[in-house]
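B., you asked whether I could sanity-check this one before it goes into the benchmark set. Here's the sequence:
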Amino acid sequence: MKKSAMIFSLLFSYCLFAQQFTMPGTEEDSSVDTIQYLPQAILPVTALEDTADNLQLAISNRQYPVTPGDVYTLTFLLAGETVSNVLLVESDYTINMTIFGKLNAAGMTFAGLKPLIEQRIADAYPRSLPALTITSVGVFQVPISGEIPQSIYVTVWGLSRLSELLEGNLGDYSSVRDVEIISGYGVSNKYDLLLALNQGDLAQNPTIRPDDTIIINRISREVQIRGEVYKPGVYQLLDGDTIEDVQLFTGGFTPMANGTRIRIDRYTGINPRSFFLNSEEYNKGVEFLDGDVVTIPSIIRVQPVVYIEGGISGREEVLAVGAEIIEEYDRITYPFNQGETLYDVLDSLRDSFAPFASLENGYVLRDQVPIAVDMQRLIYSYDTDDDVVLKAFDQIIIPVDKPIIYVTGAANFPGPFPYSPNADYLYYVNQAGGFDNLRNKNGKVIITDEGGTRKSELDPIHPGDTVNVLSNDFLYNFNQYFPAIITGLGLITTMITITTAIQNGSSSE
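And here's what the prediction gave me:
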């Protein structure tokens, strides 16, 4: 009889459990997904991205907190059969486990909840091998208001941190250093995200909990730090921040910093102004105002320099002034270290020489005194005896020997032009704007070489040749000179008339 009563008791318990425990995929299981937790206020809402990765993060992260809306699956063996139950974390953090009672999981992590529930099942049914797993993670919404373009609700989950909520939702005057979170219990805490993101202080970047309210305050001061610091950028400062705080955020000066002339551009007040401090004055505690721009210069800017001029950078322009050709040189300012030589400079620029650079005729101009150097031999056949130790403000001159063709006469834009191999004389006339049809007839030209010897139009054009476009149009020349001839003839006729009249008057007397 006792044995029959025990079997009946087990069957009764099993039937009771069957009303609560279901296999995954049943209608009761799928209905869980219809539960939603929406705020009552009507505000713009940002959507949570795909939560597939969030589930994996929740499973792998021992710090994942039990969150309202979480769905867990509890499985165990009962009478040789696998029983599965879907557990839901309610909005008040309670979990209803039916005959096993209710459990309040507020403040717990899933890693702490899992062994607690599994032990409760194991105590009731030894050797039932209970297992609790996360099926889906809960999501909830929190409001953000304050110094932002518009108040908004943001959809988050159990591992969302404060910085994630603010990304893309801040305005020009939103402070990331004075962010207030008011919990559902009315407790207010302030957080400094700059400390979190700049210094790795995760306590200043908390995870968000349901019923939290986030308030963004307005910035107090904002300064820009540029130049030789480890972390240049724009920094928000709190009212009590000092130069030590600024140095903490920027990482301090780099070894390249020039602390003799730190520039501060100040835009507050009636008129903008700039002033300069040395590092000692700066570190004593300069007071930054909103909008200040601080520039830490580099020691390179005060290094000694030399100048390189002439045939560099592959530039080939020439300017013509009358018959004089003026070559337009590039000019490079080159900072150098004490002890560097001419070879060091030329070696760093060996890919920048112009095609017609005359390296063998180069020289160093020091205090207006030229020091001749065969730079071609120095670069490609180095000898210490040919090298020159540089001094500040030396000028390294690299002449340019450019082959030129001259176009003169009745062209639209006569002048000197760079030589182009295999080009005929018409190419250079076209470079000069073509024939001036008012002055030139039938494209007549006279070509002479560098020594003045006349060449045929069919001869190849060589550097130094001159293409003279003839002014041979009769009407043009006639119109140019006929008025002058008429004027001259009129003047002569007048003079003859006057002379004749004078002579006639003298004869009548």
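One thing to flag: The longest helix spans residues 474-508. Otherwise nothing jumped out at me.
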